[in-house]
From TrEMBL:
GO terms for cellular component: mitochondrion. InterPro entries: Formyl_trans_C, Formyl_transf_N, Formyl_transf_N_sf. Residues 35-114 form the Formyl transferase N-terminal domain. This is Methionyl-tRNA formyltransferase. It comes from the Eukaryota. PANTHER family: METHIONYL-TRNA FORMYLTRANSFERASE, METHIONYL-TRNA FORMYLTRANSFERASE, MITOCHONDRIAL.
Amino acid sequence: MLTLLVPIKGVAQSLGLPVHEADTFRGWNLPRPQNEAINLIIAVSFGLFIPPRILKAAEYGGLNVHPSLLPNFRGPAPLHHMIMAGEKTTGFTVQTLDHKSFDHGVILAQTPPPGLPIPLADKCTYDDLLQFVKPRASDMLIQTLRDRAFVPPLVETGGYKFEDLKHAPKITPEDRHVRWDEWDAATIYRRHRALQRLWNRVWVDGKTEKRIIFEDLESVPVTENYFPPGITDIADELKLSYRNQERDEQLPLEYVVFSTADGEKKPLFYAPDGDAIIVLSDSHQALRVKNITVEGQKMKPARRVMQAIGRSGAWQLALDPKGGNQVPSVQLVENVQQN
């Protein structure tokens, strides 16, 4: 039987409470501690759906603490999706455990409108938000129990009406897959704050594609030091540069080749910044990446990794005639030396 170590187990053991571990409800029945029936079930961050037969075995059914303002952000990953959506406020809900669906119970207690401001919302990470929510949600659950709000007749107290409900499905590896060609810097930075290690695939030569993991990202404003790239020379190969105000000169802009979700090969432009790199994502924000891990290798400074990949000489740049002299229209062609 597979079981996970969770903090509540240690707390229960320290209080002398019996612990029952199970990874499925199949064939499992509600225990009777000291030969007395359990009258209320409480589930918090619990990934299994509790079947009706278990809920009916408890006199008052079950309660759940959900870290969102239901019905918004229903699902198993509300805090992650809250950050990715750029929410500025948060809240929590105590609801009954529904017999048919997750997060569709009767709302017994909820953070009142307009919710609580998320501290430093533009920089808040998942761990930051979790630490903010946990003690406040716990207090709400305790107060709900003291008020005996779970005893019929139940009184629904939810006061939020949402025009466009956001959902919070389970996080998958694909959620960490950076869409450099689709997402702006703000979107990517929110993903990093919510999910941490983001990844993409780049071509290390003309035939080999490898996953690279961006270990840390930070948002930086686009200043005169980091203009979007401009075309400076078209000869045997298209050359790009950016303006460095501190050095008062045009410096070469570098790139690696990545694959889009549709399999199209595109350039990812970056400017060296010490051992880090600045990815010029859009005209309002850029991203500083300090360290990168190439699959099968150890973490290294981002600039060293990207320059090693770029030395393959497997690619050169060309302009899409339809796009004119604009960087977004730059396309990749295989270097003739690879043919």
